[in-house]
Amino acid sequence: MPRRRRPRRSPRRRPSRVGGRAVGHTEAVASSRYHEMTFSGTVGRGQAAFDSASAAVLSLRMHRKAGVRMTMPNDTVGVGDVVRIAFGVGPVALHGSCDVVWVVDEPRRRGFRYRTRPDHPEDGEESFVVDWAADDDVVVTIESRARPNMLIMRLAGPVGRLGAALVNRRYLWAVRKIVASETGGLRPTGQAESA
After folding, report:
1. What CATH number is associated with residue 33?
2. Can you point out the beta strands (E) in the chain?
3. If you compute the radius of gyration of the chain from its CA atoms, what whole number of angstroms results?
4. What is the pTM of this model?
5. CA dist., res. 153 & res. 181, Å (int)
6. Which residue has the higher pLDDT, 30 or 24?
């Protein structure tokens, strides 16, 4: 007897609503078919480092310093903004766009999350959060859940995931550089990022 195949369910958005705008993650991004990465690292200490790192993240300066061309409608990200991304040079450049779905702006925590749009090389979400810990360390955490959305990314396979990991590490490097240049501080010794 032939085996009956279950129909594939299409991903559905199930965001929570705040002020009429979607701010949650999608059901599809929470599934096991997405590759997850988390990178975290100390970028400085104290209020000045927290303010500098927060500004670098929320203005996308971190992305630009890491070599990713970004455009957005305002000086800092806001829920509902469309962020346009370009990475690479000439015919091998990857282009895409993302919707900002969540922003946090608290006294000791700032950051945002965006969800890719259909024109992005990957399908998923990525968040960038700056925390000012009780021990005065300022920590940047980058979390992503993604899967290939375009043929070039599918063909890249593990090499594509390695590329994404290198870009995320470069984001941490960029924030450290920005914080050090703005606060006169040096990178804390003995602090390594975790993956």
Report:
1. 3.30.530.20
2. 17-18, 21-22, 35-45, 69-71, 82-87, 94-106, 109-116, 122-132, 137-148
3. 18
4. 0.74
5. 35
6. 30
For residues 34 and 146, the answer to whether their CB atoms sit within 8 Å is: yes
Where in the sequence is the domain holding 160, given as residue range(s)? 21-183
What is the bridge-based pairing of β-strands 137-148 and 35-45? antiparallel
Examine residue 177 and state whether it is found in any structural domain, yes or no. yes
Number of domains in the chain: 1
Q: How far apart are CA 77 and CA 175, in angstroms?
A: 17
Q: Are 134 and 5 in contact (CB under 8 A)?
A: no
pLDDT of residue 144: 86
In a domain? residue 15? no
Flag whether 189 is in a domain: no
Q: CA-CA distance, 194 to 171, in Å (whole number)?
A: 13
pLDDT tens digits, 102-158: 999 999 999 999 998 888 777 889 899 999 999 999 999 999 887 766 656 555 565
Mean pLDDT across 164-168: 73
